[in-house]
Amino acid sequence: MDKIPTSDPVLYLNGSGRGIVNNMFFATNVARSYGPPNKALVSTTLIGLYDDVSDDELIGRVVRELLGWFGESIVGSWKHLRTYRVKFAQPNQSLPTDLMKSPRIGPGYGLYLCGDYQTSATFDGALVSGRRAVEALLEDRAISRLL
């Protein structure tokens, strides 16, 4: 079995404010079928495009950073498989960012927006946005019943 620090399906977050790795997880801890038997699949996410950095250089930077997280005895056994550069993978979070956008699409349409692009580009942001959309819908329905 590939060396990994846990068998739990956890998401590792970079809370240091340094480095280029935003988060990483062991996909095979989520679903064994994501990798061949006795192998672990590691997925790492970076924020940014790094257009001026080659894939080889980017891989080197990520590996060096993850060595700091988990050590040579673990990361040293890993083999890079693929790099995907996904443009527009997350909503623009550049300042100024309006985290309190209204979920309503104009008056009288009965349409509401929700998603991480409405708040913050996080799982929590998506959930908060969904809650706001439902609250706006319920508020509008209550008001329309009074009229």
Protein model, in words:
GO terms for molecular function: oxidoreductase activity. This protein is α+β, with helices and mostly antiparallel strands. It folds into 2 domains: 11-75; 90-147. 33% of the residues lie in helices and 10% in strands. The protein has helices at 27-30, 55-70, 72-75, 123-146; strands at residues 11-13, 21-26, 42-46. Strands 1-2-3 form a 3-stranded antiparallel β-sheet. The radius of gyration is 21 Å and the shape is elongated.
Summary of the model, kept short:
By secondary structure, the protein is α+β, with helices and mostly antiparallel strands.
Fraction of helical residues: 25-40%
Question: Strand pairing plus helix content: what structural class?
Answer: alpha+beta
Task: Give the C-alpha Rg.
Answer: 21 Å
N→C terminal distance:
66 Å
Kindly report the average pLDDT value. 90
Uncertain segments of ≥5 residues (pLDDT<50)? none
Overall strand count: 3
- Number of spatially distinct domains: 2
